[in-house]
Amino acid sequence: VQLVESGGGLVQPGGSLRLSCAASGFTLSxxxxxxxxxxxxxxxxxxxxxxxxxxxxxxxxxxxGRFSISKDNxxxxxxxxxxxxKPEDTAAYYCNAKNQWDDYWGRGTQVTVSS
Length: 115
Known about the structure:
115 residues, seven-stranded mixed sheet, 0% helix
């Protein structure tokens, strides 16, 4: 069972990145997906949530209107599209798959927003 994030990197303010989360060893269709982020010296915070079927999404206020979460159950993938990035978005981003029985985490991908 594994979740692997990718797509992080260095981007200028105002730029965009698309994070991907690949699942293996289990089927994402049975799991709600969440993206969290953690900046140095700070707690891990929830960024976005999508239900198992993808029909409902929710966002933290600080990314509302800029980020978009999605999942492709057929590909066993989840995504976080990040637009209009700000320096304060700099953090390690983690994907999480959770249902009533299991709670899986990836190891994170670093996003740095800087000019």
